[in-house]
Amino acid sequence: MHPNIKKVLVSEEAIQTRCAELGKQITEDYRNLGKVPVVVSVLKGSVPFLVNLIKYIDLDIEFDFMAVSSYEGTESIGDVKIIMDLNRSIKGDHILMVEDIVDTGRTLKEVTKLMFNKGAESVKIVSLLDKPSRRVIDITADYVGFTIPNEFVVGFGLDFDEKYRNLPYVGVLKDECYQ
Length: 179
Ligand code: IMP
Description:
With 179 residues, the chain is an alpha/beta fold. Helices cover 23% and strands 34% of the residues. The protein has a single domain (11-151), classed as Rossmann fold (3-Layer(aba) Sandwich). Inosinic acid binds at residues 45, 70-71, 76, 99-107, 152-154, 158.
């Protein structure tokens, strides 16, 4: 375990198992709808989750990326900025947004709105983590990996000042790391 980690909240094994379950569910749901989603990954935090999840989606998906910013350090700055936009038209497409975590819900609300403004036919959300106790916007992900308590977490894509994204598990930093 990384020396700055106080505890592991979600293990590497649990994440892999859950990705397989979510991928299977997503495959079944879109197959039943007779649709193939365009998978949109919100950079940078969702990349490890995207990489693992898509292995288990048995559909001819395409994917694209966009980047937004809503956080500095551990505090939300409330204002969601589009830093990098999609590279393609999504008019009439069925969008599956991949997120690392739903916290206040501001990012997903804005990004979902943007997808519809661009002409998306439907928008669904899959998030590795959900922190419902922090929600200020009424939004729920369609697929959630793990619901976690109100703690700031790092690893598997999630960062503290751009570090710890490469940890293969989700954990909580030691208190002294914030000083
Ligand atoms: P929201 O707009 O408040 O829902 O925040 C979404 C974004 O904030 C996520 O995509 C993360 O990048 C970041 N974030 C929220 N909670 C955490 C956390 O516990 N650790 C690291 N990043 C977080």
